[in-house]
From TrEMBL:
Family statement: Belongs to the G-protein coupled receptor 1 family.
Keyword annotations: G-protein coupled receptor, Membrane, Receptor, Transducer, Transmembrane, Transmembrane helix
Function recorded in the entry: Receptor for thyrotropin-releasing hormone (TRH). Upon ligand binding, this G-protein-coupled receptor triggers activation of the phosphatidylinositol (IP3)-calcium-protein kinase C (PKC) pathway.
Region annotation Disordered: where it falls in the sequence: 318-339
Source superkingdom: Eukaryota
Organism: Neogobius melanostomus
Name of the featured protein: Thyrotropin-releasing hormone receptor
G-protein coupled receptors family 1 profile domain ranges (all copies): 41-301
Residues passing through the membrane, by range: 26-50, 62-82, 144-163, 183-210, 245-261, 281-303
MF annotations from Gene Ontology: thyrotropin-releasing hormone receptor activity
Listed Pfam families: 7tm_1 (PF00001)
Length: 339
């Protein structure tokens, strides 16, 4: 372990955590609130897709990958932040420093790759519908997701060799850089380009093309429905469903861009300046935006997708029925006697 006091790399800890009761209270409350909502919501997304047959679509496969990645971020970055805020020191030891940092970057990068994957899938499905019949399949989506996770797991292994625990001048233990901070600039620039800039530029181009196609088809189908009767209405309904899903995914991408912008910008700027900006309240804001991004996607699905709303209600209702169902061996008279 080298003796330097550069800023930590992981997103759950700042090296100058405020000791004030106000900061600790606000930090713990925000993190617990956002992370608890996000964990419950993303678990529900995974359960709904796995247990509801008609929800097993290529797009939803990518949303499950995104939900698991978001769960990884919330658990590996959000929950350790509670201990950081309360103690102001790293309490998870050397193995925790390596493992938690690795899982944080794994979740972050898989989230970005999953968003890119479902953006490309939507583009093919809408702009090249004939090709989509053979390309946009559940089995292919599963293979792509497996490849994304394998690639990202290998790529993020570099952090197992780049971080270590350190003891600061004030005696606080930090999980931070193993060597001088400026040596990490190429890594942060590559991360910034591959997992933020390129996905967003690609999304802007592809959703622009999608919007153009949807607009042209809507005009054509409106004319066709005027003379096509029942067939025109059926075509218009399918078009409306595709449009709804595309809008929902576009909102996911927009929020990803906005909520990740403060942290990505801060890391990029701090990589170039000699004295990094590490205000505790601003770092809390950046981290809260990250956790909110991982927590808000299930809310978007529920608000913008009728199929997800119905599946969420169905899953909840099924759990309620199982909870009320009498245990095996309980007779009808015994149940009625206690009702």
């Amino acid at each position: 372990m080298t003796d330097n006091t550069d800023t930590p790399t992981n997103i759950s800890l700042s090296p100058s955590v405020s000791e004030s009761l106000e900061y600790k209270t606000v930090s713990v409350f925000l993190v617990l609130l956002v992370c608890s909502m996000g964990i419950v919501g993303n678990v529900m997304v995974v359960l709904v897709v796995f247990t509801t047959r008609h929800m097993r679509t290529p797009t939803n496969c990518y949303l499950v990958s995104l939900a698991i990645a978001d769960l990884t971020v919330l658990v590996a970055a959000g929950l350790p932040n509670v201990a950081d805020s309360l103690t102001g020191t790293w309490v998870f030891g050397h193995a925790g420093c390596l493992g938690i940092t690795y899982l944080q970057y794994l979740g972050i990068n898989v989230s970005s790759c999953s968003i890119t994957a479902f953006t490309v899938e939507r583009y093919i499905a809408i702009c090249h519908p004939i090709k989509a019949q053979t390309v946009c399949t559940v089995s292919r989506a599963k293979r792509i997701i497996t490849g994304v996770w394998i690639f990202t797991c290998i790529y993020c292994m570099q952090w197992l060799f780049l971080v270590d625990i350190q003891v600061g001048p004030d005696g606080h233990v930090l999980c931070g850089y193993r060597v001088k901070r400026d040596l990490y600039l190429p890594i942060y620039l590559i991360d910034f380009a591959i997992f933020y800039v390129i996905p967003l530029l690609l999304a802007i181009v592809l959703y622009g093309l999608i919007a153009r196609i949807l607009y042209l088809r809507e005009r054509t189908q409106t004319t066709f429905s005027d003379v096509g009767g029942k067939g025109g209405r059926s075509t218009r309904s399918a078009h409306s469903s595709r449009k709804q899903v595309t809008k929902m995914l576009a909102v996911v991408v927009i929020l990803f861009a906005l909520l990740w912008m403060p942290y990505r910008t801060l890391v990029l700027i701090n990589s170039f300046v000699s004295t990094p900006y590490l205000d505790a309240w601003f770092l809390l804001f950046c981290r809260t935006c990250i956790y909110a991004n991982s927590a808000i996607n299930p809310v978007i699905y529920n608000a913008m997708s009728q199929k997800f709303r119905s599946a969420f209600r169905g899953c909840t209702a099924a759990k309620g029925q199982r909870a009320r169902r009498p245990q095996p061996g309980t007779t009808r008279s015994h149940f009625q006697a206690h009702s």
